[in-house]
Amino acid sequence: MTRYAAEVSYDGGKFFGWQVQPGLPTVQLALENALSLINGSAVAVAGAGRTDAGVHARAQVCSFDMACEWEPRRLVLAVNAHLPEGVSVMRAAAAPEDFHARFCAKEREYRYFIWNESTIYPHLEGRVFWLKQKRFDWGRAAQAAKYLLGTHDFANFSHAEESVKDTFRTITRIRLYRRPPLIVFQIRGDGFLHNMVRITLGNMELAASGLIEPHEITGLLDRSKTRSDGGRTYPACGLYLWKIGYRGDIWKKAAPRQPALR
Predict the structure, then answer these.
(1) Who's near 64: CB < 8 A, 6+ residues apart?
(2) How crowded is the C-beta side of 136, counted as CA atoms within 13 Å?
(3) What are the catalytic residues?
(4) Per-residue model confidence as pLDDT tens digits over 178-204
(5) How far is the C-alpha of 68 from the C-alpha of 94, rounded, in Å?
(6) Measured between alpha carbons, how far is residue 229 from residues 129, 155, 156 in Å?
(7) Which residues lie closer than 8 Å to 3 by C-beta, 6 or more apart?
(8) Which residues pair with 187 in a beta bridge?
(9) How far apart are CA 180 and CA 127, in angstroms?
(10) pTM listed for this prediction
(11) Residue 10: phi, psi to the nearest 5?
(12) If you compute the radius of gyration of the chain from its CA atoms, what whole number of angstroms results?
């Protein structure tokens, strides 16, 4: 058996999330079906992160074993020939036997796209969050974001039913920048709790709307507070799993990506 890593891009609006669910189309299931066809036997795929229904990925990473060796570019073409619309393998590479897309990941980066205008280009709907109200001061939200850098207990920034024992996470980069009417939120860290990015945006919105001062976002982290003290959970449609970071270059044996159209 030969282990491979693959970078996968997908439109989350066409799937019920990453993880296999009985009777529902998911990204993991689509990949396992395609790989099993070209392998001649069942292939199990492990992903670096479990995206929810509606969440997109620019560069999800997965790992899997194949019965024989494949030239990376031929593997990419063969898998893509059997994948449904909305998901594509962008590149692949042979990986060490002990490589695991999830457990070997050192950093994950997400980006969230907000279209803050009263009108929107129709082809953007479902790929950004259309926020029609223009009463927000995004400079205040950007200030609030800076207070979340470092290691914190993000229990209150996660889904109320989150059952993970360790809710501490380290944020290494966080930034909100504006290209009106587009607002882009970038966050990078060692890991994220369920809905953490979308709830973080809801809490930043409290600062943007003047309901809290930017520095008061840290008060929402306090365990004396609850999830209900924070802001709303932003919709899935604007969220992208943007990049997975590993120690070393796992793509050095990969065929180059196809050049972008100019």
Answers:
(1) 3, 4, 6, 31, 35, 43, 44, 45, 46
(2) 26
(3) 52
(4) 999 999 999 999 999 999 999 999 999
(5) 11
(6) 23, 12, 9
(7) 63, 64, 65, 94, 95, 96, 97, 99
(8) 110, 174
(9) 17
(10) 0.94
(11) -155, 155
(12) 19
Per this entry, what is the length of the chain? 262
72-80 and 27-39 helices, crossing angle to 10°: 120
Compute the distance between CA of residue 28 and CA of residue 60 in angstroms, rounded to an integer.
11
| Beta-carbon contacts of residue 206 (< 8 Å; ≥ 6 apart) | 212, 217, 230, 231
Whose structure tokens read 């990941």? Answer: 105
Query: Could you give the C-alpha distances from 249 to 80, 97, 147, 259, in angstroms and in order?
Result: 23, 15, 31, 20
| Token pair for 225 | 């507070």
- Report the amino acid identity of residue 141: A
- State CA 33 to chain mean position distance: 22
Q: For 248-258, write each residue's pLDDT tens digit.
A: 889 987 766 65
Alpha-carbon gap, residue 4 to 45, rounded angstroms: 10
